[in-house]
Records
---
Amino acid sequence: MVVSGPSGAGKSKLVEALRAGVPGLGFSVSATTRPPRPGEREGVDYFFISQQEFADRVARGEFLEWAPVYGHRYGTLKDQVNGALRQGKDIVLDIDTRGAEQVCRQCPKAVTVFVLPPSPLELRRRLEARGTDSRATIEGRLAAAGREIEAASGYQYVVMNDNFNEALGILQAIVVAEKARYFRQQDKLRAFQQQGGSKDPDDKTVS
């Protein structure tokens, strides 16, 4: 699942709560060149690496996607995604709209969700409440939000994060529904058929 949305929409907190509530849901920790914010942990929130190391990894083809964001680089490492998939986990990517485009080109069956803030005014309030960005940075994030919201039309689902618990419930419902899609259940269907699970043709019972 790919989750995107403007900075301040609350997508990261929603993804964190989603992972806590859905067993077997993996998460890809992104790499970034920006310095850590207070409370962020290496290898948990992000992999914090230098500009040079990031460039070297790009050259080696180690990223599934990457993009410059607000003067820094962010990217999803292939080994993070492949490691979770090898463990049989579904995986969530918390990435911006440009990264989402790159992922969807390589993984056309990816589920995409756009997290929408309730209003521009509320988005500004949330960004200012962080207390971590300068006025110029906040204005830049608000300008970028308009461009990102225009990209929402390319997503399969849009979740407005007005009420956190309601938004989380919708995300959980999306995960449950997507797991039940036919193409994701074909192995179970084949296993059932191989076990002789087909109904006796003489059985006329209607259920």
---
Amino acid sequence: MTPIQKKWAVFTGLVALVAILDQWTKYLVRTRWELQNLELIPGWFSLHYTKNPGMAMGIDILTTFQISIVALIATIAITIYVVRMFDVSPMGFIVLMGLVIGGAVGNLIDRIFIARIMDYGGFFEGQVVDFLHFTLRINDWPVFPYIFNVADVAISCALILFIVFNKRFLPQEPEENGQSKVTLPESD
């Protein structure tokens, strides 16, 4: 297997794994009432089924349809960038981008199809299913009040790792003097 083939296998495998795991867990929570409000670690972590029509962290400045279109365009653009950078990207970059795109695809499936499946709207009107909730409170202050899903975990972990270890994960092109430089895609 060539290095490019290995990168393709890792990238597509991670995209598929994250999207499938995300949709499977959302399906379980949607269809099993006993999972929709379940305290797993008392005072720390629970499952709380909710549907999010807006963006991350409850931001709600666009309609669900507009958010869905923007998310689709962003996912396509990021995927094109990643594919164009395959030959100069380290495997770490490919792994992190596989997690990001997999999470984006998982949430896009909800946005594009879930309203039709659940019979409350049309295509691109779906609300993202969220259910993971850290319930820890210090005094009366919630430490992390947001409810999220597996796709959000994949995206967040990838972005945190990218921020912490960015120099290792940036696509680089070797120069003649042995130094590497960050490479950005050429415009057509």
---
Amino acid sequence: MVFHKLFQPSQLRRLCLIGLVAFVGAGTVTAQFRARTVPGRGQKVDRVGDDFEAEDWEFYPNPPKASSNLDKQDRLPSGISKNQRIYESTYRGEPDVVKRVPTPPGGIPGSNGALLLQSLYTGVPNFISRKQQQDDLLVNVTTMLGGPISVNQNPSCVVRVYLPPWEQWERRTGSSFGFRVELETTKTETVKTQFRRMFRGEGFPTTTTKVEQYWPGFFIQFHSKTDGHKEDSAMLLIRAGSRGEEVPGPMITEPGWWTLGISVTPDGLVHYYAHSGIEPLTERDHISTQRPYGFTAQRMTTFFFNVVNMDDGRSMSTPWIVDDPTLYINTR
């Protein structure tokens, strides 16, 4: 039977239109899939990051630490590692403990050293807030490279994170650790000038641009039995979605090593990858792609860690161990 005799001309046109839409849609999905960059692909930037293998590795804390987010005090000079690859944030201040330790079992083959991060006092020095607070520790990118990295270079960063046995976690349900990037974009705003329109008494509207910084990434959230959960567990949270909301990631039912990775592509999107274990990330490990806060990224300036606890003077944070924070670029 001839195909054109089965359908009226109008039906044929409709079928062709449906097929064209399906083809274009499939192509769009394929393009988005190919546009993602798996963190860890491309060229490793040797001048950035650290493997913590130097036995004389040391961090100089330079207390009291910063707490500019709470009291506008950055308390220079900042803490910094002996090799100048890791340094204190002047916004929140470094963790109380920044120390090279032996790599826990199951880590990267051949690794003998990793970095322990832990805090008791996460707020303003010599003041207990009794609220959840956090400390930051940054990887030195802009000084080492002479400036930020354009998203046209497909920057990505990867780290291995050791989740200790559940009994060593701070007994509190909530965020405990963060791995994030600092990005920049240009934001356009409409403002009113100081000149007044005659008879109306109002300013002329005009536009202005400014550089906007934002900090997308992962948080590891603990679910504690002490707060009514059936079993201790954790989960990955993605910060943030297009409206600034947190996006739930996979559950973590067993402690141990995890690999986390974040990439930024020339279209300004942020891509999140993770899996348990220490093997390199693959496309199968993709968790989410977001345009955080609705911003389109233009540059990466650093990546960093958060250590979170209840700043009550008694609750030591979970002891976090990280290894091989590494930066990659891909100029394909």
